[in-house]
Amino acid sequence: MGFKGLKPIMYGGREVWPLVEGGKGVSATNHLSSGAWAAAGGIGTVSAVNADSYDAEGKIVPQIYDALTRKERHEQLIRYAIDGAVEQVRRAYDIAGGKGAININVLWEMGGAQQVLEGVLEKTRGMVAGVTCGAGMPYKLSEIAQRFNVNYLPIVSSARAFRALWKRAYSKVSDLMAAVVYEDPWLAGGHNGLSNAEDPTKPEDPYPRVKALRDTMRGEGISDDVPIIMAGGVWYLRDWENWIDNPELGSIAFQYGTRPLLTHESPIPQQWKDALRELEPGDVLLHRFSPTGFYSSAVRNPFLRNLEARSERQIPYSKVEAGEHTVRLDVGVKGKNFWVAPKDLERARAWVLEGYTDGLRTPDDTIVFVDPIERDVIRKDQADCMGCLSHCGFSSWKDHDDYTTGRLADPRSFCIQKTLQDIAHDGPIDENLMFAGHAAYKFKQDPFYSNGFTPTVKELVDRILTGD
């Protein structure tokens, strides 16, 4: 028995603890961490988002994109993604040794998501218990799961999103929907499903939202035995005591994304692990700089502060004299047809004196001012785009039809593939995106981690099961 009567559930044909390791893309989880989580009796999650593959000596294969066109680089990316995820699943399955279960996680918004998912499932038959999938509306998830006879676990942030998926697609493959992941849009790390109706500055209590999700599921005839997995902000099970065995909510499981980062098996570099111990409340920022267009949560390090500062050096313009745009912009841009407000002209001239000499147009009819080094990095990253997203605001890539979003590339964003690959493979943590959930400050407060203690995954799972 776990904390307060937490009981194992049946999943993938065996009993497992209702504790799920969140799959963190681009090598922040790998076979070591997810295999160990399954071996400890939980559900481990291999991320199938640009996972690492290995050469004959066991060294990580660097993902180099040398093809000339974006479309060809995108095809390289898909090959890397399939090879890497297949290798990770096989290794995780071996480590699990028949205990727990191995899921894979994909983002529907990643470039070539369907091709990658099908390629991985084709080559790992019998090893993957289920597929979790969010970031977008993955209507096709259920039919893919049916074709490969695996469970699927949609990730949603509201009852409304679930209802749309169920009505359009999932009701036809109801027997393989093993659970529904409720990912709290204010508390989870990484990309979040905040809708336009929700205020990013006003977090809502997850209980009524999860109860609404269960009520919706019941209304569609879905059994209370199909768990809702609470994801985002989960640290101590004792904080969730009234959720366990609660008839209002039905079966509940818990997903851990942030806590497993600080274990022996966690593949993230030591400097990232060390940084997690120093975080304070409020150090994780819910922001909108991601090229996906989604809100996402990451540590407010110098990389993120730089993006915040860049967006503050921004003024609106029009191509003709109109309204308050009565003066011509004479700095940062070539040509005479940029009309701005007089107060913005003053601001632009001041930025140029500070060294931010280059004005770059954004898709929102604004100009953002950067220094020449930043300008060159932005241009190079945009030119090097390898199509890692289905739609990318930063490079204007899209992974189908004519391969362009038709919008201007957005210099306020960044190449997410480059920065996530870099931080996961020992790049400087101050110069890259560092995803984390909003409870990450608890590493500093939780006595379990005092005196620099780093648990194994098994020690972490055992600790979680005590309620701490």
Question: How would you explain this protein's 3D organization?
Answer:
- This protein has 468 residues and is an alpha/beta fold.
- It has two domains: 294 residues, Alpha-Beta Barrel (TIM Barrel); 130 residues, no CATH class.
- Helix content is 31%, strand content 16%.
- It contains 13 helices and 18 strands.
- The strands form five sheets. An eight-stranded parallel beta sheet has the order 3-11-10-8-7-6-5-4.
- Strand 4, helix 2 and strand 5 form a beta-alpha-beta unit.
- It is globular, with a radius of gyration of 23 Å.
- The two termini are 15 Å apart.
- It holds the Pfam family NMO.
- GO terms for molecular function: dioxygenase activity.
